Structures are given as C-alpha cells and as structure tokens.
Amino acid sequence: MSFGQGGPYGPPPQGPYGSRDPQGQTPDWAALADASAQRARRRRWTLIGGGVLATAAVAAIVATAVVSANGDGGDRANGKNTSELPAAPDLPSESAEPEPSFSDAEPLPPPDPKDFISTEDKDKLPLGADTLFPGAKLTMGDREYTKGATNSTTNCAGATQGDLGSILAANTCDQVIRATYTRGGTAVTVGVAVFSTETQALKAKKEARGGLASLSGSGVATFCRGGTICRKTTNSYGRYVYFTVGGFTNGKDVVKSDKDVYTTGDDVAEFTFLQIRRRGETQASAAATAPVD
Question: Are 264 and 248 in contact (CB under 8 A)?
C-alpha cells in the first residue's frame, strides 16, 4: 500500500496563525506581526477619536457656563436687571482746598551786620559805657583785666590830648566813651569816638594825630600824662573810631620790649572791636526775623 507523499495522515493541519512545522511548534512570525500592527492602528484611532470628543464636550460645557454667567438668565436668577446692578464708584472730584503756591521771587540775602553800625539812622541800640564795656572784669584767653573808671562825654576834644581833639571836632564827633583796664602794673584806657556816618569816621581815623587822654580813678593812679612815653593805637569799624593809650601806673616810659603793655593794649582793643561788631550782629539778626508788613 502506498501512502503517497503526504504520509498516512494527509497534509499538515492549518491553524489560525498559518501552518506549523511537522511537529506543530513554530508560529508564522510574519502573520503574527501583521495582526499585531492592525490591532495597534485600531486602538490608536479609537483613542484619538475619544480625545476629540472629550475636548469638544469640555468646550461646550465652558461656553454654556460663560453664557449663563453673562446672559439674562444670570441676572434673572439674582432677581435683578443689568440696569439695577450697582454702578462703579465715581472718581473723587478735585479737592476744594487750595493747592500750595510757591513764590518765584529770589529770597532776600541776610542783612549785613556792618550796615547797622555804619550810620546812626540804622544803629538804634542803646549806646554808652555800660553797653560797650559791661561787667567789672574783662577776660581774653587766660588773661583777666579789672575795669577801672568809665566816662562818656559829648565834648570829644576834652577826652583827647594834642591835635586829636580838633580833628574829632572837625569831623563832627558826637561823643567819646572811655574805660580803663588794669592788670598788674599796666593800665590801658580805650576811647570810642562816635560819628554819624562811616565816611566821617574813616576821615577822622586817617587824619588822627595826638592821642587819647588816659582815664584814672576807681583805684587807678594817673598814668600816661606829663610827657610819659606810652603806647597808642587807632582803628575804626563802621561809624566808630577807637583809640587806646597804655603804659605803667608807676609812670615808667614804655619801650618795645615791654610785652605786657602791648598785650594789654591789644586785648582791650580787640574786645572793643568785638563789642562794636556785636551791635551790628544783634540788629541784623532782629531785622532778619522781624515779620514782614
């Protein structure tokens, strides 16, 4: 009996994935790959289609919510029409208070203190020995001087020696105020000649000759009289000319090496200048703070 080429059992059976080998253990790999690719394509298109539908559904829901929030339905749900909703608050109107204003004018410069002691029209503070030479003592640095006699006179020539009296009178001197200061055995008299204007004072200073008459008394003996050599100085500030005459209370002549006499004269002259300048500063300060009419 011949079984033919296929053997006694006929051709190999065909499974769902293609033919098997004679033992039935090796799959058809090409067929399996094609089937898997088809299934993957179907799954991808299914997911894409579902995503598009979900996105469209969300957009529709949002649009519906917006329309509901802004449409008439929302107003009716609150029981109000659009015209009944509260209006936005009005912006504040311009203030009724006046705005600050600033002057374009340049501020005036402060008054010059010297202006107030350059003419009698502006120099109005009280003037006398007590205002120019206050107190019983004078201190300059570590040096202290005792004040002696003081004097004020409108007879300017009577407070001078030599030619100075006539010079003061020719320039219309108003008065001479004197004070004497002592320290140890030295004494200095300072005299302030007062004029109406600075011009008169400068002219008198330039022409000055002779000297001031020393002022004794109040415990100070006569000094710098009768031809005794003494140290003299002349200076001016504003409408005031101030002179000093200094020496020894024992009548000794002054020489250049007598430093104590020079120091005493310089200290008293500086103090006098400061007192005159202070008059100008006081009056300038009062003018600067005075209310404007």
Answer: no
Strands 160-161 and 143-153, how do they pair?
A: unpaired
Region label for 162, one of left (φ > 0), alpha (ψ between -120 and 50) or beta (otherwise): left
What phi and psi values does residue 218 have, to the nearest 5 degrees? 55, 45
**How far, in whole angstroms, is CA 136 from its chain's centroid?**
42
Locate 232 and state its tokens.
């003299």
DSSP of the chain: ----TT-TT-SPPEETTEE--TTS----HHHHHHHHHHHHHHHHHHHHHHHHHHHHHHHHHHHHHHHHHHSHHHHHHTT--GGGSPPPPPPPPPPSSPPP----SPPPPPPPGGGGGSBTTT--S--SHHHHS-SSEEEETTEEEEEEEEEEES-GGGGEETTHHHHHHHTT--EEEEEEEEETTEEEEEEEEE-SBHHHHHHHHHH--SEEPP--BTTB---S-TT---EEEEEEETTEEEEEEEEETT-PPP-TT-HHHHHHHHHHHHHHHHHHHHHHHHHHHHHHHSPP-
Do 173 and 160 meet the contact criterion of CB atoms below 8 Å apart?
no
Q: What is the pLDDT of residues 98-150, one digit of tens each?
A: 666 655 656 667 789 999 999 999 999 999 999 999 999 999 999 999 999 99
Residues composing the chain:
293
C-alpha to C-alpha distance for 20 and 46, rounded to whole angstroms: 34
Is the whole-model pTM more than 0.70? Answer: no
- Summarised one tens digit per residue, pLDDT across range 250-264 is 999 999 999 999 999
CA–CA dist 229, 65 (Å, integer): 120
* Max CA distance (Å), the chain: 191
CB 257 within 8 Å of CB 226: no
